[in-house]
Amino acid sequence: MGQFLVVTARPQSPEAVEQARALEALAHDQGLSLARLEDTGWIATLGPRHPRRLQVGPWTLIGEVFDRRSPDYEGIGPHDPLAYEKKMMARLWGRYVGIRRDRDGTPSAVLRDPSGALECVVWRAGALTILGSFAPAWLVAYLKPDWRIDRDRLADALSNPLAGTGALILDGPLALEPGTHQVLPPDAPADVLWRPSDYARDSLGPRPSLETAAARLRDAVDETVAGLASLCEPLACEVSGGLDSSIVASSLSRLGPGRVGLWLNAVGAVPEADERRWADALADHLGIAVSNVPHAKAPLTAETLEAIGQGLRPGLNGLDPTHDQDWADRLTHLGLGAVMTGKGGDALFQQAIPEVFTDRWRARGWRSLLEPDTVALAAANERSVWAMARQAQAFGKNDAPAPARRSLALPPTHSPPPHPWLKDLDAFGPAKRLQIAGVADGVSRHGPSLLTAAVEVLHPFCSQPVVEACLRLDAGLLVLGGRDRGLARHAFAGRLPSVIVARRSKGDMSRIYGRAVADALPVLRPWILDGRLVEMGLVDRAAAERLLTRDSLIWRGRASTLLATAAVEAWVRVWEGRLGRRA
Fold first, then answer.
1. Which residues, including other chains, have CB under 8 Å from residue 179's CB and lie 6 or more apart?
2. Residues 6 or more apart whose Cβ sits within 8 Å of residue 333
3. How many CB atoms are located within 10 Å of the residue 83 CB?
4. What are the DSSP calls for 304-365, one per residue?
5. Rounded to the nearest 5°, which phi and psi values hold at 310?
């Protein structure tokens, strides 16, 4: 996705005005597209697709904005001081940051849309105010900010997948949370305009009919796919053979011919990573032509690791750089500026896990044993109904299951605060809490990679209309029939081939990544074992040394753990060099 940078100077400070002009010249030299903001500031944008600007009342919205088909203003009081902003966030969706400015052009407030697709950080440098989705090396070198790498947040990033959102590891700039409004200067906490739990509360009420729920889900997906597809025509679409990408493809194909220039499926070199059977079945059903291409592989290098560590957060969205670069080359060669994916559906459409029964138990007690899907849910998890009932009875309201990453991190010295979206969830059972955590994790899917540097990467299932539609439905309905994504299967059954709707398996790239890490051991062993994370006492060197062998990768796996550790290590090295100081 494109990037933006806004620099404004306090008019009463001639020195700051001169600094702003000097930075403007630097931005021009770096190839950014520039526009003036009064006499004391400017906005710069960078591709692959430059964010647009749209004026909505007092707000300048930077990014991509779409009108909601059926906005919901429920709960917004007429005397709410932020009623205008809340209604705007309910009426619009997209990938945007809003800036409100005083008469002299100085930013007085900023907001970020609920998807969090466009990063937004703000900081002060004397009489300068800087807002942006990135902090390039040339800007940091000029301003020399007194930033530090926060050791506790860095430790959390090694094992907590939700650390890809929330506060930055850098101590200095303020990262605005998705769905919040921040008055500037940021002397007070941000105002929350949108949070997942507000929509999840609908799931605690009466359940809609099956067909009503299915129609709402289809409408939300169609609205989002159509909106994102309008950004770039034609575009590419990932067709993995799985249910989620097939749903996206089915919705996209309904928009008419000429909207998609390439339907693309990556074929792994092992049987479990070869999904041509399902991709071809989808192609026959939709009347499209899918290009099956090998999953690209090449030796991992230190230069590649550093290339994905340039952002404000560790490059955990770019852990398959060879594949990303291959797809970027294919798309740009064909003149395609975007690719649409089905990522994000795993958590949003709900997996058929035992915790779903706990949610039912909390709502209906012993009557939940009589629900028709209970036995199927137990069978799917290879448990008895009574075992699920015992688990449900043992669940406490303060239990807070959340996704965790297997890591090499040593035990933390401090417990980090929970993610803002995971607070005050006592009303919900564990399945709905995990879904909310999945929504938070979905924000990190918009992170930078070698692919996003070349083309737009569009994730409909991480967008506001689909997220809200799924949050409003209870977990039991989402796993209709005791199946993963049961409601989604039912809602889109008429658009998909039966072999995909009924499919129970899923493509597995574990061996592919395991081989890639094994081939990269000459680079990864010294990178991790002699790296800064070990030196700082954050990574268990002995455990890393045991894992960094071919035998261990064969018998224990953990390739993703090693790649994530290497990516965080790369980020630390990049930013220590950029700031000129060690953490």
1. 89, 112, 113, 114, 116, 192, 193, 194, 195
2. none
3. 13
4. HHHHTT-SSS--GGGS-HHHHHHHHHHHHHTT--EEE--TTHHHHS----THHHHHHHHHHG
5. -85, -10
Residue length of the chain: 583
Distance CA 62, CA 56 (A): 11
Structural contact between residues 64 and 95, judged by C-beta atoms closer than 8 angstroms: yes
- Dihedral of alpha carbons 150, 155, 156, 161, sign: positive
Q: Is 123 helix (H, G, I), strand (E, B) or coil?
A: strand
- Between CA 36 and CA 441 the distance in angstroms is 36
What is the residue-wise DSSP string for 52-104?
A: EEEEETTEEEEEEEEE-SS---TT--TT-TTHHHHHHHHHEEEEEEEEEE-TT
Q: What is the dihedral of CA 301, 303, 304, 309, to 10 degrees?
A: 130
Q: Please choose, from the candidates 449, 509, 462, 461, the residue with its C-alpha nearest in 3D space to the C-alpha of residue 327.
A: 449
- What digits encode the pLDDT tens for the residues 295-336? 998 888 999 999 999 999 999 999 999 999 999 999 999 999
Buried b (16+ CB within 10 A) or exposed e, 190-216: bbebbbbbebbebbeeeebeeeebbeb
The rounded distance, in Å, linking the Cα atoms of 281 and 418 is 43
Residue 501 one-letter amino acid: V
pLDDT grade for 399, boundaries at 50, 70 and 90? low
CB 67 within 8 A of CB 92: yes
